[in-house]
Each structure stands twice: as C-alpha cells, then as structure tokens.
Amino acid sequence: MVLSAVILGLVLPTQLVLSEIMANPTGGSGAYLPEDRNEFVEVYNTGREAIDLFNYTLSDGDAVDRIIAWQDTSILVNNPGVIINSTWLKPGGYAVILDPEYTDSAIGGYVQPYRFCDSTLILTVGNTTIGNGLANNDPLTLTSPYGDTTTFGTPYEPADGFPFNPGDGISWERINLNGSDVPENWSGCPDSAGCTPGMANAISRYFDLSIRLMAIKGAAPVKPESVFEVELLVLNSGYGTTPDWQLIAWWNGGDTFAWLLNPGLLPGEETSLVLKPVAPKNQTELWARIVCPEENETLNNSYRLLITPAGKRRLLSLGFSSFSPNDDGFEDSLPIYYFLPDSGGHLTVKLFNLRGRCVRNLYPGRHPTGTRGVIFWNGRDDANQRVATGIYAVYLEYRNSGKKITARLPAVVLR
Predict the structure, then answer these.
(1) Are 391 and 311 in contact (CB under 8 A)?
(2) Scanning 183, 206, 211, 274, which has its CA 20 to 30 A from the CA of 158?
C-alpha cells in the first residue's frame, strides 16, 4: 500500500496547473444564454508525463464537479483537430473544460465562439454547469483522486478580494505557469479576442515598451547650434520579450534626425540610449518615439523634452510646459529639473495655483544629492487629489550659507 502511494505520487499531482479561467463570457446571462454556456477552465500539464484527468474534481466553492471526457462530435465541425472521448492530457498540453451546454441549441448569439488549437484536449463536467455557474469572484480548486490540488483565485485567502471581474469577455490568464496562485501572477487576457483557450496565454507574449525618462546629459548648458547629449531610458514592463524595435527622434515641426535600431528587451529589462542632436537657436521641443509594429500598447511610447538654449544653465527648467496627468501612459508626470550653484544647502520645490495657494510641497527643504537632479510632479495635491486643469507656478528655492536664490516657471495641467 505504501509502495503504490509512492508510485502514484511520482506520476502526477503537481504537474497540473489551472492556466486560464473564463467566468464572464461576452453576451447575456441566463439559461441557454452566452454567459451560461461559454464559461471554460483551462488546464496545462507542466510535467513530462501524460496525466489522466479521469476522476479529477473541480470546485468553485459552491459545487463539486467530476471531470469527464467530451463526447459531442459536433464540436469537430469548427475544431477538427481537437481531442475528444479521452481524459488523458499529454505533457506540455492544454485541456479546456467546457460547459456541457457549449454545443447545445442556443439563444443570444455567440454560438461556439472559441477556436481551439489542434491537439487541445476537450473535457467537460458531469453536471449541467461548471460549479453552480462561475461567478466573477469564484475561486477554483482542481483536485486529483489522491488529494493533490491546483487552484485559481487564492481560495485559501478569501479576504484578499481576488478574483474579481476582469471585464466582459475577458479571461484571467496565469502569467507564470510555474508560479504560485497569487493575485500578482494573474492578469486579464490582453489578446483582442479576450481569451486564448487551448493555446499559450497571450499574457506570456505581452510586452510594453516605454520611454521612462528623457533628459539632457551633463551639467554644461546647452548652447545654440552646438552638439549636446540626451539620454533616454527605455523599459519593457511587460511579460514577454520584445522583437527588435526602433527609436526615432525629431525637432518639433522638423524632419527626423535619428533612427536607431535596437535589439529586443527581456521582461523587466531597461536600456539606455544617447542622442546627439544639434541645439536649435530658439526654445524648441525635442521628440522621441518608439516604433514597434507588434506592440499594442503605444501610449507610453513617446516623450518630448523642452530644450532652451542659453549661455548659462538655468536654475530651474521643465521637461515640457504642459502635461496631462490622466493615467493614459503619456505625460502623466511633469519632469522638473534643477541645477544648483553648489551642494550642501536646502532645496524646496512647491506648486502654487493662480490664487497663490500652495497645492503641493513637492520637495520640502531637503538636502539634495549633488547639484543637479530631476523631480516629478504627478498632477496631485498634498491630499493626493488631482488638481484642476489650469496654470500652476513651479517655485524653487535654494538656501545655503545664509544665501537664498529662487526661480519660478509656469506649468499647464491638461486632461
């Protein structure tokens, strides 16, 4: 008896993971309607052995269902390459547990909306619904006949507020298939179809390139018609590796003067690029943009920097004269640059409205590190509330050895 238990323990249990959950299909809710018949649960086999899901159970906390083979051959009309009449899941394979009514006569449209990859194992449950009908806040537990489990939605942490509604027609996808069932390891599917049943999760291919910072290098002032350096930090904040991408740069109203080809970035990887433009004679905006045709999220791919040529570096300068802190990923914060005559003093940076009231004490009399730096204002006041649209004064004050110098510049908040 002990030997058989050991053998069984070698075969399976922890190899399976719940990899994608559709609890909120597109369409109406109710008997025979899309939200009732189009729910699904995807399972992935991470191991090297095939696993028989016969006698596995799936629970949403309200009902326990037994996993059984799918037998309705009508599903083969649109998906001729799927596997039915079996409960064996190959290593590295996906199984999709469908509602038993998925292929039934239906109302409300969205009839058999999913297209599955070849070799997807189609399963169902020995009940009329998955659980008692999946709710947006239902966690799930898949249990083997030997008591081993894999979960979705942290059923062991009912007070953490997860899962919740990811959006109509959007599934939850596991980010790291070998990672734990924690909220940080799940994401709403970014694919245009809203889900990816029977195939690799779209989130694993999702990448997000952004220009995190664009700033003048060095402490020397920018002189008209001279070459200066601008550093850009580009970050991939997504979960997949990017393809090759390009960075283009131009002066506002002018032609492109730089076109840089760059290799792909790994998830979380950041790279630094340096531009060497010739400064204009007058104050002009310098623009940069990431070009990557495969990327869907492009709002944070552009950046602009206000260049003010002068014979002497100003005490205070702004990245741009206006910005729109509306959380769309583009110019959600205002870069405020300072260039101090010496170090060791106290720096204060405040924001005032047109009535003269201080709305944000951004840098309250601290010792800055070095003589130059950048501070970002996110368009919120000291109570963390968004300020109204309009003109605000950026006020800088620097005190050292009994001396005080100040500077002011206007900044426009847009929406």
Answers:
(1) no
(2) 206
